[in-house]
Amino acid sequence: MAEQTYDVIVIGAGPTGENVADRAIKGGLTAVIVESELVGGECSYWACMPSKALLRPADVVAEAAAVRGVTGARLNPAEVLARRDDFAHGWKDDAQVGWLDSAKIDLVRGHGRIAGERRVQVGDLTLHARQAVVIATGTRAVVPDSLSPVNPWTSREATSAHAVPGRLVIVGGGVVGCEMAAAWSALCAEVTLICRGRLLDRLPEFAGEIVAAGLKDAGVDVRVGVDVTRATRDGDHGAVTVELTDGTKVEGDEVLSAVGRSPHTADIGLETVGLAPASWLDVDDTMRVAGVDGGWLYAAGDVNHLALLTHMGKYQARVCGDAIAARARGQEPAVRDRSSKTNVPQVVFTIPEVAAVGLTAAQAEAAGRRVRTVEYELGHVAGAKLFADDYRGHAQLVVDEDRRTVVGMTLAGHGVGEIIHSATIAIAGEVTLDQLWHAVPSYPTISEIWLRLLETYGL
């Protein structure tokens, strides 16, 4: 059996794994990535990039339709799918492999399993790590028992399908469910969205309500407060019938399971180092896994369950790679994770968009903070009125009353994804409301919402 030794071994070549290895290399170490599928991972081929490539054309048409004097904007489904294919590089990873080569990161293709301390087995090859092994295997879609008999779509099929289904039933009202409802309904699929609670239930209630209204306007049949009891398919490739808890049935040509994600850790050898297979991995603020003697095992990205978002995985990767390099020099890491629990920004690319960062009021209160929420209708801001006729949107600011700083913000409305970073900076920098009062927003832009919120607060 062949053996090779590196300073750092990374299992998983998604954006997180790539960034860990890159930071390790820049820190003067050697690194290898082990990948069983495509270099670039879920984000590049089945999530962020292809999903947003599907959604952006729909967003353009929706924005055009909202401005009086613009007529005739419509989608060409074949061209939209072709553009999506380009962003997914035809599901080939040549360009990503080329980047690894340019960054001096070695690649081993195959299924990597931890085989004891600082050791990873890939087929007949044994890799040894002088410093660290990093798990960056991400997550996989959950398929509930009620849907498994019909071989449903997961997010992978929903973002890579090469034909528009006539009827699509989506089960789950989270980010994937809402985004795919927006994308496929815009491409003329007849979409039914089923959610056992409310849409986007981890965000303030108004966000889900505005998205639900937008989806209904787009022709989506939104059904909340119901769940699936049983699903059957006519033959191997026929129509699907979904039975619901309210006694009704929905038929579709395909059904998408969008009910959540589970850690991709079932068969990576966790048991060889005393950890439970298929578990989320608890980490400290340098991404080092708890409960492993010697401190050589790290986990970054979705697999540690801190923040299941590509940009947060890349942020954690930078923290992780720098920490490994510092410890290799005999130093304690200067940079530690300060954002994965409190400052996480995200954008839901529905029509309209939802953008949020930091804590909700409920989360802040649960953490013992004395907070006040400030609300304002986005449609009353001049920039929003110019952006779209009858602009529908809302903003909520969460303020720590003792420190007079922003700890959370949620926006719903067209274009809000491009302005949420201002809130991220305010939260990460612990900027006080008195300082924000002197950060004058340009007129007439949607960013003027900051001034309106501060005025509503009482400044």
Walk me through what this model shows:
The chain is an alpha/beta fold and 459 residues long. The chain folds into three domains: 2-40 and 93-140 and 262-328, 3-Layer(bba) Sandwich (FAD/NAD(P)-binding domain); 141-259, FAD/NAD(P)-binding domain (3-Layer(bba) Sandwich); 352-457, Enolase-like, domain 1. The chain has helices spanning 15-26, 41-46, 48-65, 77-87, 94-102, 155-160, 175-186, 205-217, 310-328, 361-366, 382-387, 420-428, 433-436, 449-457, and strands spanning 2-11, 31-35, 106-109, 112-114, 119-122, 125-135, 139-141, 167-171, 190-195, 221-224, 228-233, 240-244, 249-252, 254-257, 261-263, 297-299, 345-348, 354-358, 371-377, 394-400, 405-412. The strands form five sheets. Strands 1, 2, 3, 4, 5, 6 and 16 form a seven-stranded mixed β-sheet that branches. A five-stranded antiparallel β-sheet has the order 17-18-21-20-19, sandwiched between helices. Strands 10-9-8-14 form a four-stranded parallel β-sheet. Strand 20 and strand 21 form a beta hairpin. Helix 1 runs parallel beside helix 9 (310-328). The longest helix is centred in the C-terminal third of the chain and has 19 residues, at 310-328. It is globular, with a radius of gyration of 23 Å. The mean pLDDT is 97.
How are the elements arranged and paired?
Layout: E1 2-11, H1 15-26, E2 31-35, H2 41-46, H3 48-65, H4 77-87, H5 94-102, E3 106-109, E4 112-114, E5 119-122, E6 125-135, E7 139-141, H6 155-160, E8 167-171, H7 175-186, E9 190-195, H8 205-217, E10 221-224, E11 228-233, E12 240-244, E13 249-252, E14 254-257, E15 261-263, E16 297-299, H9 310-328, E17 345-348, E18 354-358, H10 361-366, E19 371-377, H11 382-387, E20 394-400, E21 405-412, H12 420-428, H13 433-436, H14 449-457
Parallel strand pairs: 1-2, 1-6, 2-3, 6-16, 8-9, 8-14, 9-10
Antiparallel strand pairs: 4-5, 5-6, 7-15, 11-12, 12-13, 17-18, 18-21, 19-20, 20-21
